[in-house]
Amino acid sequence: KSNVRQALLDAFKNANGKFISGEKLAQNIGCSRTAIWKHIEDLKKDGFHVEAVRKKGYRLLEQSNKLSENEIYLGLETEEIGRSVYFFESVTSTQKVAKEYAMNGAKHGTLIVADEQTEGRGRMVRKWYSPKGTGIWASFILRPDIQIQHAPQLTLLSAVAVVQAIKKVTHITPEIKWPNDILISGRKVCGILTELQAEEDRIQSVILGIGINVNQDKNDFSAEIIKKATSLKIELGKTVNRSSLIQSLCYYIEQLLHLYISEGFTPIKSLWETYAVSIGKRISARTVKGTFDGVALGINNEGVLLLKQDNGDIVEIISADIDF
Ligand code: BT5
Fold first, then answer.
1. Ligand 1 probe mutation, 128, 177, 194, most atoms within 8 A of CB
2. What is the ipTM score, two decimals?
């Protein structure tokens, strides 16, 4: 990535939609006006709307809805999360790409985003539909200094981050269905997949996969999921800017991670509980050990779901699909 381009984006960001002259840009960034002009042409190719007016200079108009590394970088309010961002037009799965980057030493906060996934994955061997140009298909490489058994807490932390980011950008407050579904009006708008790479009992990296349905229309969903899935556009009635949502997601992940590292899981748990749908309700949990029916009491400090069966026994559910 070119430094000039980055500096240019920063300058536009600071100008807040006002004009800056080519001369001033060249001076501040320390390159020729021709170089500025060339980089502006590149930005336009990436979908930025840069307006050029004689005697006034350049200004950046509203953001485009095309994803790119620079589009995500512009407006990022974080120190670590998303600061290293890699964008791909099409990949098999961002989880796969992120794992390779993690193995090659990618730093904490590195973000892999794709416009399309051809083999997007859910938990187990389930499929995650990731059609082109409509959603956020993203994997974060995290290197938190925590013990392996606490890793499931990161899924819950991420769910809170997704809820807060969606709320910030759309003013809709989604609900969390334990452990990893984000719902709006009872339909799934986002799924989260947390995968670990560990050695002995130390975490090498956590690959946090987040899939958000953003701009799909109703008929964009396959028959398999049309009844249970939704998108932000369907719920809001208008298109949502994906870059803004990614930036917001980075922001909340970073904030919540700071909170988690400094104060532990307790504050994350209470945030999670304010957004959770199933607590206090009768649910049915399908696990590898069979199906358990009862009332969901809540989560414990490990992020494990507590289910009270009709005979009064309390079962700890570590991983399951929940019906209610
Ligand atoms: C999940 O699994 O919900 C985790 C999904 C994680 C996707 C992200 S995208 C970026 C990263 N790269 C990947 O390859 N994956 C991650 P699970 O709880 O197992 O739910 C999977 C089920 O959700 C499927 O069996 C379908 O029923 C349903 N589903 C599939 N695609 C969907 C979509 N786009 N929207 C809503 N539901 C969907």
1. 128
2. 0.99
**Each residue's pLDDT tens digit, 59-104:** 988 666 778 888 898 889 999 999 999 999 999 999 999 999 999 9
Residue with tokens 């953001």: 63
- Give yes or no for residue 213 CB within 6 A of ligand 1: yes
141: number of Cβ within 10 Å: 23
Which helix (H) or strand (E) is 24 found in, with range?
A: helix 22-29
Tokens 């269905």 belong to which residue? 177
- CA–CA separation, 57 and 64 (whole Å): 20
Any ligand 1 atom below 6 A from CB of 129 = yes
Number of C-beta neighbours around residue 20 at 10 A: 19
Using left for φ > 0, alpha for ψ between -120 and 50, and beta otherwise, residue 8 falls in: alpha
9 to each of 42, 75, 210, 240, how far by Cα in Å?
A: 12, 9, 26, 22
Task: Give the neighbor-by-neighbor strand order of the sheet with 181-184.
Answer: 85-88, 110-114, 135-142, 202-213, 187-199, 181-184, 175-177
For residue 6, what is the enclosing H or E element?
Answer: helix 3-15
Q: What is the 128 CA–ligand 1 centroid distance (Å)?
A: 4
Q: Which atom of ligand 1 is nearest to the CA of 135?
A: 34
Q: Report the sign of the C-alpha dihedral through residues 117, 122, 127, 129, in that order.
A: negative
pLDDT in tens, 115-129: 999 999 999 889 999
Q: Do 142 and 116 contact (CB within 8 A), yes or no?
A: no
232 neighbors 189 (Cβ within 8 angstroms): yes
Domains of the chain: 3-60 (1.10.10.10), 69-275 (3.30.930.10), 282-323 (2.30.30.100)
